[in-house]
Amino acid sequence: MKKLFGIIAALLLSFTLIACGEKEDAAQAFLDNAHKALDMVITEPSAIGANFQVPVSLADGVSATWESTDPGIVAIGNASGGFVNIIVNRPTKGSGNATVTLKATLSVKSANSDEMITKEWSIVLTILEQTVEELTIETIADILAIKDDAYDPQDKKDKVQVTIENVTIIGKGDVAFGYDGTGTIQLYGGVSKDLEVGKVYTVSGLLEWYYGIWEIIDVTADEQAGATPEFPEKVVITSVEDLIDELVENGEHVAASGSAKDGNFEPIYASVKGFVHLTNDNASDNYNTYLVDSEYDLTKEWVGGEAGKPARGLLFYYGTSNFSDIRARDGFEVTIDVIIYTYRSNNQAFAVYYIGGKDGIVLGELTDQQKVDLDKAALSLPLEVLASADEGLNLVAEGAEGSTITWELVNSDHALIVDIETGKVTIPQTGQVEVEIKATITSGDKSDTKTFKVWVGAAQLMSIEDAKDVASGRTIIIEGVVTAMSGDKAIQIEDATGAMVLYGKYIKDLDDVERGTKVKVKGVKDNYKGLQQVKNYEVVSKEASTVPAAVNLDAIEKLDAGSLLAHQSKLVSLSNMKVTKVTVDEKYGNVTLEFERVDGQKINFYWDSRVEFEGSEALSGFKVGDYVNIVAAPLSWSDGPRLSADAATQVVEAEELSDEVLVAAALDALEVETLVFTENGTLELADKSNGLDVVWTLKNEADADFVNVTTGAVTVGTGYKEVVIVATITKDAVTDTKEFTLRLGVKNIVLTHDISFSTLATATNYPYEPADTSVTNSVDNSTFVFLRYLASINKQADHESNGVALGVRSS
To answer: Which of 15, 299, 300, 517 is most buried, with most CB under 10 Å away?
Structure first.
């Protein structure tokens, strides 16, 4: 008994010692994940030639503090937007590459106390030496003075790194323009889209000569807080024609067709007066919008530019801000602020970015028709009035340009819902009512109308299938089971009719909601790049449920948008998909893959690194040629279908398909479009199937006079003949064949069928319904149907029966 007690006491002591030991810190996993994430940030540490950014804020509250072992070569810039600029100063040509260690201290609050826990990360960088002789480049003017092709190498790692101080951002579109008091230059890529007009920065990046202009690419920037912005003197242009003539006289259009040695065009900060002119009505034409001279005849046919003779207008580049607002002023005289930034040699026109903002388009004198057009375009009503009669409609009587506006109900029955005189709205007791209201806009003897649809009443609960047909902007209520995260803040839900995305939150942000929870939500219908979703939503109710089964896409013929639209935002599965492309985003670690099915059908995969899950690092480890199974993964959408993942079990390795399977699948997919020839023709024979080579032969070489499998020529004789062609597919040691029978000429077929006749005793036997009879043609399995019709039956003595009609139909 004493011995047993001693064992129990020892066990209790061991349990006590374990319990009293240091408790494992759950936050350590956050540091470990952040450490792994940093491994994907710098993909080519052995060939650093330009500035780059690294994160200072990572997932789960982890922060990173950075330091460099050689700040003279690799300096740590200012942090902004969760990232810090790493400034690279490449060694001069001939001095050799430099080696620098970049270090990060990762820290996060302990889960067990208020203390911070840390973990170190580091990477050794090789900084490439300059490939050209060092120039003194301290200002934008220094850049614009370069006329040497050596400073515009094609390989990015050989490009010249520059840093320019005191750069004021003077305008933006899809690029930015900076001015430092000595000159103006275009800034492209990197953080250029994040720069703010009117702020001053120290700008760094790579030099690139791009079709006649110098630009700084892969931009990083540190704001110079408190610095006074400096803008160039604005050039006032009242004649577009005179401007173009002056630019041509100065040869400003020439360099765009040359190279860096031929000079460059310096962007011009200007105010320009002229007519907005769309040269055609094609809304998808990005190069049809010009600013022409105020004296230009808008009715004449547009004549584009040609080499040495630029177009007689300034082309608005489609990346300009407020491009749609500019286009909406087609035919209007305007005065606007622009940057004339280049001569586009492909369009043979000087091009501009509009930089004045939505309210910066100053209109000239308007005609009555223009007043009506503008006031009509500006006129709006809310899409819906949901629950409050106080949300009356503002039925304005006059437009901003002076047009008078009158209103009427399209359906007078809706007078109980909307008072057209006051705009007051009465909410129906149940349901929603779609009210149509027509406005008539008049100025002088010109008028036009505009009709609005307003849904009045409380938001309605509907199926997801019905919700997809609802216009964007309307408030709806839907209910479905949470199945997955298909993207950043994109939660998939599904009901018996379909699936949709709830956009704006993570599953973890919703209290007591997880996969398998049925939620009822109220929000605003939206459509983003074809993805049907609900945004700005709130959860109305929730209850436990089960995740719906995934849709197996193996048997679906095509993996394209038309075939997969019905399965958008559902869970789907696919077997034995071959990896054909792998791309890992250097900055964020997002993973893009392309999968190919055995029949050649392809589908994209995209994982957003903000959708975090354990084992996600495996996604970036796939290689071209790997095979995977997609198991109950979310089918997302971005202008077409693409797979995603929010669990490691959704994309798993699969065995490589055997050559036997690949050959069999290729033969199964192989078809011959035309098998019957009644006259001479050409046979179309595929040379590949599912990527494998196809070799065609005749089963009987004696048929070579009728079919040439090399040229595809088919010769039809005087009689009927069948010719068998053979497709052979080989992959390594596996070979198999498939036969196709061609039918040449016309074969006469005689069909016989016994017909029995009978009479009807009385009219009480009506209606008479004779049965058709089918006869199958054994030659090609086509079907002939004998059709029997009752023509007439008459038993009167002075009338003859007309008998039974017989017809034949072939199918």
So the answer is: 517
Question: Rg for the chain (alpha carbons), in Å?
Answer: 37
The encoded tokens of residue 746 equal: 């016309």
The structure's pTM equals 0.60
Quick: pLDDT tens for 42-96: 888 999 988 888 999 998 899 999 999 999 999 998 887 789 989 898 898 889 9
**Euclidean distance between the first and final Cα of the chain, in Å?**
96
**Residue among 328, 336, 345 nearest 289 (CA):** 328
Mean pLDDT lowest among 6-10, 361-365, 485-489: 6-10
What's the rounded Cα separation, in Å, for the pair 474 and 532? 13
Fold observed for domain 661-744: Immunoglobulin-like (2.60.40)
Res 791: pLDDT:
45
Of the candidates 385, 386, 324, the residue with the CA atom closest to the CA atom of residue 358? 324
CATH architecture assigned to 370-456: Sandwich (2.60)
pLDDT band at 334, cuts 50/70/90?
A: very high
Q: Which pLDDT value is given to residue 92?
A: 86
* Nearest residue to 445 via CA among 367, 331, 332, 368: 368
Instruction: Fold for 464-544, please state it.
Output: OB fold (Dihydrolipoamide Acetyltransferase, E2P) (2.40.50)
Q: How confident is the model at residue 5 (pLDDT cuts 50, 70, 90)?
A: very low
Give the span between the Cα atoms of 38 and 54, in whole angstroms: 8
Q: Helix, strand, coil shares of the chain as percentages rounded to 5?
A: 15, 40, 45
Tell me the three state secondary structure of residue 669.
helix
